[in-house]
Design brief:
The complex is a heterodimer of chains A (488) and B (369). Chain A has 488 residues and is of the alpha+beta class. Helices cover 38% and strands 19% of the residues of chain A. In chain A, α16 crosses α18. In chain B, a hairpin with a 2-residue loop joins β11 and β12. Chain B has 369 residues and is α+β, with helices and mostly antiparallel strands. Classes of the chains: A alpha+beta (488), B alpha+beta (369). Bound molecules: flavin-adenine dinucleotide. Flavin-adenine dinucleotide binds next to β3, α5 and β10 of chain A.
Chain lengths: 488, 369
Amino acid sequence: MRAIASQADFLTALARILPAGAILARREDTAPYECDGLTAYRESPLCVVLPDTRAQIEAILKLCHAQGVPIVARGAGTGLSGGALPHPRGVSLSLAKFNRILKVDPLGCTAVVESGVRNLAISEAAAQFGLYYAPDPSSQLACTIGGNVAENAGGVHCLKYGLTVHNVLGVTGFMANGESIEFGSAALDAAGLDLLSTVVGSEGMLAIATEVTVRLIPLPQVARCIMASYADVESAGAAVASIIASGIIPAGLELMDKRMTAAAEAFVQAGYDLEAAAILLCESDGTEIEVEEEIGRMIAVLRESGATQIEVSTSEVQRLRFWSGRKNAFPASGGISPDYMCMDSTIPRKRLAQMLRAIEGMEQKYGLGCVNVFHAGDGNLHPLILYDASDPEQRRRCELFGADILETSVRMGGTVTGEHGVGVEKLNSMCVQFSGAEREQFMRLKAAFDPAGLLNPGKVIPSLQRCAEYGKMHVHHGMLPFPELPRF
Amino acid sequence: MRSGDPELSRLVERVQSARAGHIALDIQGGGSKHFYAELPRGEPLDMRPLAGISSYEPSELVVTARAGTTLAELEAVLAERGQCLAFEPPRWAPGCTVGGMIAAGLSGPSRASAGAVRDFTLGLTLLNGYGEVLTFGGQVMKNVAGYDVSRLVTGSWGVLGAICEVSIKVLPMRPAVATLGFSLDESTALARLLTWGARPLPLHASAWLDGRLTVRLAGASAAVEQAGKELCAAVPGGELLGPQAASQWWDSIRDQHHPFFALTAAERARGECLWRLSVPSTSPPLALAGRQLIEWGGALRWWRTEAPAAVMRAAAADAGGHATLVRAAEKRAGAFAPLGASAMRIHRGLKAAFDPAGIFNPGRLYAGL
Ligand SMILES: Cc1cc2nc3c(=O)[nH]c(=O)nc-3n(C[C@H](O)[C@H](O)[C@H](O)COP(=O)(O)OP(=O)(O)OC[C@H]3O[C@@H](n4cnc5c(N)ncnc54)[C@H](O)[C@@H]3O)c2cc1C
């Protein structure tokens, strides 16, 4: 990396591109950008820029490229893995002003929006045409479509309707050197290699997105949700596998354990069964008759798998109330603990109960509590480890606890992150999931898009050296390294 | 994938010596897509011995198969458990393989509603140009650990490496299916497909040819029945097709044994070609000479035409899509639509990242890759 003449010179050059209010360089102004949703990690950037036009972004990227300055893209900063954590010598590029909905095409069922548009705003704009954007992260009120693309975000309805990658047709933006680029198209495929799929989920490491073309789908006529209680986590886990095995793909299938249910109930009064060891939320949507038929089949399977109590929503108000607790699981956890760390691994569905038991063991081992909320239908776990970040000792144990969950997931045939991304948080766990040759392949892939390595450096793919050190530390902590993991 | 597998070791050795000797390898499965893309060249690298279903768990909705497994075997195993490949990959010849299906990345009639091959690719094991056996993705539904190499490799025509094994998401077969037929001209048919597509109807596939639109509905039986009645009533002369005729019709489109897709030697010699135009579904009828078959609710338009390549490519590009030259006497115009300079630079970079010696399927996708 070339040395910058000085921060002042760089800021002067930026000031030729952007109006005064669009450059934040004083510590008190950049403070709100110091972290994302993973507040345990903080860093102060060289500066924050808030461009308003594509021409400004292009000029900023060209300047940074010429001067070797790192770029960290930023949407709403709700990411949970430190993906938007600033680089100490880098520019944090906020897409906040790219918040225009450019086009909603009710006939083609697509929308073209700028990357800073909030997830929910797309569905709101499409609603007048009876359409919506399906992926619905719980953060959808705040998070941006650019951030969703970068993380391949999911939500409670992704079991049936797919993740971001399944609902995005095209991404327009810039390469690290300021060249304009388009991935995908308005058609269902594009010529050449599928670069769009590669850019989705790439955590701001390959390109900067400025516009996104999304697929919209017709709003279902009705949706109804079943709330089923279970006396033990084993039968709740088995019920999830049975639903899928019976040939049903619910619109949503979520699991919460007893303590999560209690925290959520205290937070929003959703009407949850507080006696149950676990509850399942199982949703059906479609036409009236379709839903009636499917709800009947679902109830039969849930009963057979030992549900102790079953309640079916009879109105939209009640359905939304069932979901309100689930959708507020994270803030609700904030109500019962000073801090929480959200894990995001995915495991085969059949391992759900086994994993819940393993987490119980880890609570003892690390001396910290953990509440569990799972996108059970997809096998995607969100254990929330409760701790106090102001206590360094608790923070240390929390990190070990988290790493233990991730590595247990990999051993169960899963992955360290299902939808929140690697960011800075799961760098060590990437050493466990991937071999050295696989990680090097990732690095070469990154270089094909960003040869100078200026986009979000230090994230997602750990260096070989870091993994070597992590391997040693593992032995030091008396845990077993897993050199030859069976992956298939 | 077990590293001690003798078939795999044999492939690794072949790749290492090809790399050392700068020998081009033509990765082969069943050979059913030989005619597609650019002409293969190089020594054959037969993937068929690396065959068999490695694991299948219906309740996990995932199957893992080695590259040489035939599609016929895979589909039969899934059907036994009431499951299927929802993207209906083409079976252009009996011996076509799972590896070829992933490498070509082609999807069938249900693509617009169910998704494409890449939407169902969960993970794969790749033998890259360094002779390394690498695994990306996995068997779980959601996975964002590292870049999505599995999807990048899907549809790569083998230029990044040899696919050894792949995990695919499978789905339950739809409980009810019905096919409707309507007599409609092209623009009315396209308009109908768009209006129907914007409503919560169980639309599953569509095909328009020679003034006749066929639409397949699939889903819960009550929903299919209700929608079938409604759509039939909406267009005068709308009718329900018998199940056997319907399934033969859809197979003839999916597997392209419908005569529309075949070109005789004489037709080829005359300069007639088969083109695949992937365009936004909202594109109005394309003013081109020739005969047309429309799929995917208007988003896929097959043309048999003698029109020059430049005309076809411009028509697709103007509509916001791209044109692939599928069957022709010669493909001097390039099988695939040319890329812009930035995209081509990324493609070259990726080729160098996976296959620095350029041994895998050189030129099959684009010259120089
Ligand atoms: C309460 C809460 C609930 C959540 N629930 C869910 C959930 O259900 N499902 C889920 O998937 N996630 C969830 N998340 C995580 C988070 O909301 C998602 O990851 C979201 O996609 C991040 O969007 P953002 O705009 O906040 O991105 P940021 O946090 O600002 O950035 C995330 C990453 O994207 C990159 N990036 C952002 N914009 C661009 C761009 N335009 N071009 C290139 N790169 C860019 C950044 O560099 C960074 O690496 C939740 C978070 C919170 C706080």
